[in-house]
Amino acid sequence: MTIVGKGVTFDTGGVDIKPESAMLIMKKDMGGAACALALAHMVMGRGLKLRLRVLIPAVENAISGTAFRPLDVYASRKGLTVEIGNTDAEGRLVLADAMALADEEAPELLFDIATLTGAARVALGPDLPPFYTEDEALAVELAAHAAAENDPMWRMPLWRGYESMLESKIADINNTGTGRFAGSITAALFLRKFVTAAKSWAHLDVYAWTPTAKPARPEGGECQAARALYALLAARYGD
């Protein structure tokens, strides 16, 4: 199995720069990578009977003379050309290439964990990350383990009807959806284009941050999804 974690060490938004207020906690944009590494540490500590591969695409999204610009087109590892609709949708670009690399081995399971969209926070808030998968059995297992481990998450649909929002006139696909609707879903649909050989895939759009301190949960970085995913793997591959 393979785990991919988004490792954007700081996100300015690039040329489509974020406002100051939105940039203050962008050191947390590597939260997906941190959660992926936490999951890998648990798997290795338990010695689960599986072949584990961990991919962390680590970058910084900043402005420079070589930075992506809106309407640029780049060729992805998968061979799909991608139009840059917005440079602040950088996470899905680095994830796409890492997931394409993972997919080349046709893993039995492929999980990607990423602080990907503000739309997920608008829909479900900071405590309840959405997950996406087309594997019905995996979805049921993941929801059950999330509840049992008090590591909550909520399944959202890979609604194919929204794929038209990612269409481009000059490339195979655009990295952002048109308009302001279904931002988390269109991001997941974008990533889905880069997974064709993996037997099962799940995408987790985490926040990885506690904005207000709670009992036993100080303000700051928060490990999300890793405990539920570990419980699922332990049930499948443990002694």
What are the key terms here?
globular; 3-stranded mixed β-sheet; single chain; alpha/beta; Aminopeptidase; 13 strands; 6-stranded mixed β-sheet; 239 residues; 19% strand
Describe the protein in words.
The chain has one domain (2-64, 88-161, 183-237): Aminopeptidase. 31% of the residues lie in helices and 19% in strands. The chain has helices at residues 20-23, 31-46, 91-103, 118-124, 136-148, 183-192, 226-237, and strands at residues 2-5, 7-11, 53-55, 58-61, 73-75, 81-83, 109-114, 130-133, 154-155, 173-174, 200-205, 209-210, 220-221. The strands form 4 sheets. A 6-stranded mixed sheet has the order 3-1-7-11-8-9, sandwiched between helices. Strands 5-6-10 form a 3-stranded mixed sheet, with no helix packed on it. Strand 5 and strand 6 (81-83) form a beta hairpin. Helix 2 (31-46) packs parallel to helix 7 and helix 5 (136-148) packs across helix 7. The longest helix has 16 residues, at 31-46.
CATH superfamily: Zn peptidases
How many helices does DSSP assign? 7
Return the average pLDDT rounded to an integer.
Answer: 97
Low-confidence stretches: none
Strand line-up across the major sheet: 3-1-7-11-8-9
CATH architecture: 3-Layer(aba) Sandwich
**Assembly level:** single chain
CATH topology descriptor: Aminopeptidase
> What is the helix fraction of residues, given as a range?
25-40%
Which structural class do the helices and strands define? alpha/beta
Radius of gyration (CA) equals: 17 Å
CATH class: Alpha Beta
